[in-house]
Amino acid sequence: MNKVIDRKSRHELALMQEAGQIVADTLTYLSKIVEPGMSTLDLDKIAEERIRKAGAVPTFKGYYGFPATLCTSVNDEVVHGIPSPHKILKAGDVISIDCGATYKGLVGDSALTIGVGEISDELKKLLQATEESLNAGIRMMVAGNFLEDISGAVEDVGNKYGYGIVRNYGGHGVGRKLHEEPFLHNYRTGNQGPELKPGVALAIEPMFNLGTEDVKTLEDNWTVVTQDGLPSAHFEHTVIVTEDGPLVATERTG
Q: Is the pLDDT of residue 75 over 70?
């Protein structure tokens, strides 16, 4: 029997939207200032300052011991890259920036992958396809659909382009905590999962690799990289099911 996804109250959803907009504003700003020569720690410091100035706290910092505000994953790093003064961005790199903010106890969580300077057409296509799959998943966040509908929409885009769809990591419930049930696969599992109802909030989080889907975790016990060393892309939004369709709490307008 499929589990029911916990639903948030109107008050909680309003706070999630506040948190989401803090995250969106932070990511929008970072995407505008990323340039060759910056370190990933530079970005992290800027993000923490903006989040705290907005009256929120960085969700990731201290989460299971994670040491930073952002996850900054460069090139073959898929997720959970730790910001460092020694990780200097170069023209042609791609960087995935994952950001969470907690506002009055509620969480917004979002990620995007951007090019540093001019990037290859091959990488542009990877980024576009991964974001396309996120948008396809968002369109499935409709009352009466099931969790598997989101997974299938993401998978179909990945398969269309022939990318490696990361299977070890995926989306999740979000709101009162950063990671809540259910886990959201980026591919079909054959189980339709729980029904989506108004008040359900999920972080939809596709990750596509230019090559193999296989990944491994580095010795820092955080950074996940592709097995073949080829680049990866990662996009994520916090999305709420409403009576009127999907509401993207972390939508970037800038």
A: yes
Contacts of 82 (CB under 8 A, 6+ apart): 66, 67, 68, 71, 72, 220, 222, 223
> How large is the average pLDDT for residues 74-83?
98
Residues 6+ apart with CB under 8 A from 57: 51, 101, 102
Report the chain's C-alpha Rg in angstroms.
Answer: 17
The Cα–Cα gap between 232 and 248 comes to 24
Asked if 212 and 227 count as a contact pair (C-beta separation under 8 A), the reply is yes
Number of other residues whose CB lies within 10 A of the CB of residue 114: 17
- Report whether CATH 3.40.50.1460 matches the domain 10-248: no
pLDDT tens-digit series, residues 91-119: 999 999 999 999 999 999 999 999 999 99
| CB 94, CB 74: distance < 8 Å | yes
The answer to whether the peptide bond before residue 182 is cis (omega within 30 degrees of 0) is yes
Residue 231 pLDDT grade (very low, low, confident, very high; cuts 50, 70, 90): very high
